[in-house]
Design goal:
mainly alpha, about 80% helix, 12 helices
């Protein structure tokens, strides 16, 4: 039950359409009216619950299965509500929720595959730590849309900002996490500081990588919001560094215990 609740909560955190909730232009100011937010949240929670339960039953291919389950179930539920005239969706709503449900299913499926439902418990090896690190970035950056999405006026700008934010961060964090995992030898405090430094470096490198796109686009199409999130807001790096520092300190203690035994 504990893992079911954790998996469902993580799924909902990733799949919820934060940008539509805070940007009046994207939803014509109607996201919080006529029960739309309630219906959207109910569909996401139901999809997360069903998806998590199915992942519990499956034993192989969890990432792919989770992604397929996410995008299929939430699309069918939202389409069914729309056909019954319970709600009238605004442009891009179903696509955006379905896209993030796909991401949520892949992330949760990958974690579930390595996880706590096995009798041996969750194994904190390099692969598992890397998957957790990527999932943490997804949740943190997606939540940060509550800050940056207020300025977005168009759907293409929203998708552009998300692509320019998530893709470079996930790519650059992979070698960073590998380096952290191999060099985790100090105490928890130093490990957290080292993880924060790694997060800041990843954010700054990612911002530099997308800078040519920002110049060519003249700051429009979501490029300005992506740079602000990557280089102008320290919060994501602090939160990610704290999470990963604590996790890596657990890895260090487990490795030390294994050597002593």
């Amino acid at each position: 039950m504990k893992h079911f609740v954790q998996g469902t909560t993580l799924w909902v955190l990733i799949a919820f359409p934060y940008a539509f909730a805070v940007s009046p232009a994207l939803s014509d100011g109607s996201f919080w009216r006529m029960g739309r937010v309630g219906i959207a949240t109910a569909c996401i929670v139901l999809t997360a619950g069903i998806g998590t339960w199915i992942l519990n039953v499956l034993r192989r291919g969890h990432s792919a299965a989770g992604g397929i389950l996410g995008v299929t179930l939430v699309s069918l539920l939202l389409a069914a509500f729309e056909r019954t005239s319970v709600i009238e969706t605004f442009p891009g709503e179903i696509f955006h929720i379905a896209m993030w449900s796909l991401v949520a299913g892949i992330a949760c499926g990958g974690l579930w595959q390595r996880s706590a439902l096995s009798h041996n418990g969750f194994i904190l090896n390099e692969t598992s730590v890397g998957w957790i690190a990527g999932t943490a970035w997804i949740v943190i950056l997606h939540l940060c849309e509550l800050i940056t999405a207020r300025q977005l006026q168009r759907l293409d700008a929203l998708f552009g900002a998300e692509v320019l934010t998530f893709v470079p961060v996930l790519l650059w964090s992979k070698p960073g996490v590998k380096l952290l995992y191999k060099r985790v030898k100090s105490g928890q405090g130093n490990t957290i500081l080292l993880s924060m430094a790694c997060a800041f470096i990843v954010q700054e490198i990612s911002a530099v990588c997308i800078f040519p796109v920002v110049v060519l686009a003249r700051g429009v199409g979501g490029t300005q919001e992506a740079v602000i999130l990557l280089a102008g807001i320290p919060g994501p790096g602090i939160v990610w560094g704290t999470i990963m520092g604590w996790l890596l300190s657990r890895v260090r203690m487990r490795l030390s215990a294994n050597r002593m035994s």
